[in-house]
Write a structure and sequence with these properties.
This is Tetratricopeptide TPR_2. The protein is an all-alpha fold. Helix content is 72%, strand content 0%.
């Protein structure tokens, strides 16, 4: 399960100046209107660099990134030193999940603007996204040398050190960013991620709380808190923290825009950015939804666990572990057909997994197919002879079909493996009571309660 990561921050505002606020009615201006007007200007002078830059900006703001790139390239034919065009190209490739091409464009930007710390910061983010961490650190150092008060660059340096697993250096950079801009909640959340990696869960909880006190919609702060509570085995607190993060994700326009709404989810997608893409694919690469299902399962909210796995599997239907865990949850609330169907899907993806084989066999047996049940349970035990749950399920199926002596034998073999003692003794007690062995049943019941 992959972890979510800290946030690389680029703050780029491209806006138009507005006139005095009045009550007069203004007609909505569409993309077609803007392009039509721009076409007219360019018809008078196709080499009008300002008009081409404006056109590139129109496309960029409308998220038509290929068109923004093409128009910017027309600008560069007129003026190869047009920094604005290179910037639009780099940012567009970034949004198109092409970080290597973004790096090339931003390299041209810093070459044209060697004294601008903002450009080095942007270049550093692009390098960090491509895994060129050493070069990214050098870019952030140039940015902070030019402007030692550049908080965003210090934060991004910390994120890059984090990705390099140099957590002490990461914390130092985050501390610098916080000292320069103490009202930025994401900086505290990022430091929380570093605390998590160092095993300082109380420290992580502290900075996450600080971030949330500043902004309740700070998504990563909730998730940092959830991870820390999870590691401290405070299941309910962890669940509510993760739940708070998902609620904040829906209510925080910036995070929602950057994350789940605007990025395509595909099974082959690789995590390009530290947080935005992770949240966008918030099943496979963050583990947050799955971590929530684990907590739901531990606090016996089995239906909620199934509901979450339905969401996960709708996006990643080839996720075998998800089908298996959905089946486990369905068994807990005695939805045996649903469990059998889930294990069947898991079996297609994990054909040699003893857990899946035995679980599919068990549910198939409960639904009336004894031979099919034994076929799959025995195959699981052939693959892993010491698999305790395989013997448990074998004993339960024997008992279900009235083969009590065979059930006792299977359950005793399971006890010899050393695991699942509570469930094995509970099953053993049921068989013993059915056989009239009241004393043995009572002893096994007590053992099922104490676990040995």
């Amino acid at each position: 399960m992959r972890k979510i990561l800290p946030v690389l921050i680029i703050i780029l505002f491209i806006a138009f100046a507005s006139g005095e606020d009045t009550n007069q009615t203004v007609d909505t201006i569409t993309l077609e209107d803007l392009i039509k007007e721009n076409d007219y200007v360019l018809s008078l002078n196709p080499q009008n660099l300002t008009a081409l830059q404006y056109r590139a900006l129109i496309y960029y703001n409308e998220e038509k990134y290929p068109e923004a790139i093409n128009t910017s390239e027309q600008c560069l034919k007129i003026d190869p030193t047009c920094s604005f065009a290179w910037h639009i190209i780099g940012s567009s490739w970034g949004y198109l999940n092409q970080p290597d091409k973004a790096v090339e464009a931003f390299q041209n930007v810093v070459t044209l603007n060697p004294d601008d710390p903002i450009q080095y910061n942007v270049q550093g983010v692009a390098l960090s996204r491509t895994g060129k961490f050493t070069e990214a650190i050098q870019a952030f150092q140039k940015a902070t040398n030019l402007n030692s008060g550049y908080a965003a660059a210090w934060n991004n340096m910390g994120v890059t050190y984090f990705n390099m697993k140099e957590y002490d250096k990461a914390n130092s950079a985050f501390d610098k960013a916080i000292s320069l801009k103490p009202d930025e909640p994401e900086f505290y959340a990022n430091k929380g991620y570093s605390y998590l990696q160092k095993g300082d869960y109380n420290g992580a909880l502290g900075v996450a709380k600080t971030a949330r006190n500043m902004d309740l919609t700070c998504v990563p702060a909730w998730f940092v808190s959830g991870e820390a509570q999870y590691h401290n085995r405070n299941w309910k607190e962890a669940f509510y923290s993760f739940d708070g993060g998902f609620n904040a994700l829906a209510k925080n326009d910036l995070w929602y825009y950057q994350g789940s709404k605007k990025t395509r989810i595909t099974k082959d997608m690789q995590p390009m950015d530290s947080y935005y893409v992770a949240i966008a694919s918030n099943v496979r690469f963050t583990g947050i939804w799955e971590r929530t299902t684990v907590i739901n399962y531990k606090i016996k909210r089995y239906q909620e666990t199934i509901d979450l796995y339905d969401q996960i599997l709708a996006i990643t239907p080839d996720y075998g572990e998800g089908w298996k865990k959905k089946g486990d949850s369905a068994i807990k609330i005695k939805r045996i057909e649903s469990a059998r169907d889930s294990y069947k899907r898991a079996l297609d993806l994990l054909p040699n997994d003893p857990e899946v084989l035995s679980s599919y066999g068990y549910t198939t047996g409960l639904l009336g197919d004894y031979l099919e049940a034994m076929k799959y349970i025995n195959k699981a035990l052939e693959l892993e002879p010491g698999y305790t749950r395989g013997y448990l399920y074998k004993g339960l199926i024997f008992s279900f079909y009235g083969q009590r002596e065979d059930a006792l034998s299977a359950l005793q073999k399971g006890l010899e493996t050393g695991g699942e003692k509570s469930e094995l003794y509970d099953a053993l007690a049921n068989v013993q009571f059915k056989n009239g062995d009241t004393i043995g049943g009572v002893i096994s019941t007590v053992r099922s309660l104490i676990g040995f």
